[in-house]
Amino acid sequence: MNQLLDVSVPTAQTKLRFLWLSQLSRSLANSLERARTRRLLGQLDEHQLSDLGISLADRLNELDKPFWR
Asked: How far apart (Å, rounded) are the C-alpha atoms in residues 64 and 62?
């Protein structure tokens, strides 16, 4: 029996799969972060919004966006 380990070099296809998976996970993390910050924005009152320089119209426009944008 041969006890040697397979130490082959990753192929270009393997690298592309890893890159695709990495981009997918980064995109998912960004989408979740946008959803979290929009949820927090929705909890602010008028005084807190004015402190941040955000109008009610800006707030509504941001809250109407889907989480992936």
From this structure: 5
